[in-house]
Design brief:
The chain folds into 3 domains: 3-132 and 301-321, Rossmann fold, CATH 3.40.50.720; 139-296, Dihydrodipicolinate Reductase, domain 2 (2-Layer Sandwich); 340-425, ACT domain (Alpha-Beta Plaits). Helices cover 38% and strands 25% of the residues. The chain has 14 helices and 18 strands. It has helices spanning 12-32, 46-51, 63-66, 83-93, 103-120, 137-141, 158-170, 174-183, 192-195, 198-212, 231-239, 301-321, 359-369, 399-411; strands at residues 3-8, 36-42, 58-59, 73-76, 97-100, 124-125, 149-155, 222-223, 242-253, 256-267, 279-286, 290-297, 344-345, 347-354, 374-380, 387-394, 397-398, 421-425. The strands form 3 sheets. Strands 7, 8, 9, 10, 11, 12, 14, 15, 16 and 18 form a 10-stranded mixed beta sheet that branches. The chain has a 6-stranded parallel beta sheet with strand order 3-2-1-4-5-6, sandwiched between helices. Strands 13-17 form a two-stranded antiparallel ribbon. Strand 1, helix 1 and strand 2 (36-42) form a beta-alpha-beta unit. The radius of gyration is 24 Å and the shape is elongated. The termini are far apart. The structure holds L-homoserine (HSE).
């Protein structure tokens, strides 16, 4: 049997898949007995399909793929939750297997998609939705299945990791490093999804759902990005023995699932502290396996296409052998999401304040009134300027109290200049 495939999306990842297909199609059959044939390619841009030698398979109407009874498997690579939702759900309803790289879709409509796949007796595979080329979903759904996973910590956004690395190693300010990331094609013209943490939030929602067997959706993830982080924060972190990363965090706790994305100080001795540039890494702790780390390129045509095509071949092997879908939805529990207000940790807080007598004392008073105990305070800046940085590090404090203290500081007259920088500590 030959597995017939329809591909939707010929951008970076789709182009990477076409390159792998053109290069290795015969090897797949020779080495693994997996016989696949691309029969239709849908895109808005015919030139992209032609550039990869598949112009003769081109259509600009995805219905020609999901309504084609000959097609067994649909690859969705357009991203987003609009048309992609129609393609994925339409393909599943038509009884086709689906492979996608779409993190936003899986993190918002995962349950609906799994239910449709179950009803149709087919499979949805999405390895490329997290960590680009890094195998993480398959290992968590297979190799680590005998574990109770207690935590997943991830550097899962290459753009922000690149920016933080350059701010850290070269002291380049945020705006400059963002412009550089955009010039290099790492960051989009609208960088919101990356720098505000939403890309990482979708990825940790997917990983937490698998790790804890309980559905976590994008809106469950408390999310803060890196817009307020500057080289001064990275230097201060170093002085205390920490490195700052945009960490995607999911812990199983007695109260439920603690899941969040925010700039985080991690000890400089931790393996994640040494993951630099656009690389990604996911650190998984299980009760039997202990600590494991998965590392590699988190984005780019080759790495993402490697993950997509791995799914395509595994699913195709099962279609050919008539094996029913192996792993469907594993979210059998309904764990509550721990409110962010309940978090208790140490905080690094940098306030930009006017340099005048009494400001430090007034700020310290606000913290004490909110039951936030301070461990240290540093003033950075000189009287020559009219603004200085006050850097506070707290003892373990409640998130709720920290937020209230920051609200009180913002409301106080002539106190804060701009937004405070908040970095939580993960020891
Ligand atoms: N924008 C993502 C990143 C890649 O910067 O890692 C796609 O998930």
């Amino acid at each position: 049997m030959t597995v017939k495939i329809g591909l939707v999306g010929t951008g970076t990842v789709g182009g990477g898949c076409l390159d792998i297909y053109n290069k290795h199609k015969d090897d797949f059959k020779r080495h693994y007995g997996v016989d696949i044939e691309l029969v239709r390619v849908c895109s808005l841009d015919k030139a992209e399909a032609e550039a990869h030698g598949v112009g003769h398979l081109f259509t600009n109407d995805f219905n020609e793929i999901i309504n084609d009874p000959d097609i067994d498997l649909v690859i969705e690579l357009i991203g987003g939750t609009g048309v992609a939702h129609a393609i994925v759900t339409g393909a599943l309803k038509a009884g086709k297997y689906v492979v996608t790289a779409n993190k936003a879709l899986m993190a918002t409509a995962g349950e609906e998609i799994f239910d449709l796949a179950d009803e149709a007796g087919v499979e949805i595979a999405f390895e490329a939705s997290v960590g680009g080329g890094i195998p993480i979903i398959d290992p968590m759904k297979h190799s680590l299945i005998s574990n109770e996973i207690s935590s997943v910590l991830g550097i899962v956004n290459g753009t922000t990791n690149y920016m933080l690395t350059r701010m850290d190693k070269e002291g380049i300010p945020y705006d400059e490093v963002l412009a550089d990331a955009q010039a290099k094609g790492f960051a989009e013209a609208d960088p919101t999804a990356d720098v505000d943490g939403f890309d990482a939030a979708a990825k940790i929602a997917i990983l937490a759902s698998i790790a804890f067997n309980s559905r976590v959706v994008l809106s469950d993830v408390s999310t803060e990005g890196i817009r307020n982080v500057q080289p001064i924060d990275l230097k201060a972190a170093h002085d205390m023995g920490y490195v700052v990363k945009l960490l995607a965090i999911a812990h199983r706790t007695d109260e439920g699932v603690d899941v969040r994305v925010h700039p985080t100080m991690i000890p400089d001795t931790h393996q994640l502290a040494h993951v630099n540039g656009v690389d990604n890494a996911i650190y998984v702790t299980g009760d039997a396996v202990g600590e494991t780390m998965f590392f590699g390129a988190g984005a780019g045509a080759g790495p993402a296409a490697s993950a997509v095509m791995g799914d395509v071949l595994e699913v195709s092997r099962r279609i050919m052998q008539g094996v029913p879908p192996l792993v469907g939805c594993t979210c059998t529990d309904k764990l509550p999401i721990v409110p962010m207000d309940n978090l208790e940790t140490c905080y690094y807080l940098r306030l930009v304040v006017p340099d005048r007598v009494g400001v430090l004392a007034a700020a310290a008073k606000v913290f004490s009134e909110n039951d936030v105990s301070l461990r240290s305070v540093i003033q950075e800046g000189t009287r020559a300027r009219d603004a200085v940085n006050l850097i506070f590090v707290t003892h373990a404090a409640r998130e709720k109290n920290i937020r209230k203290a920051l609200e009180d500081l913002a409301a106080a007259e002539d106190m804060l200049i701009g937004e405070p920088t908040v970095i939580r500590v993960e020891d």
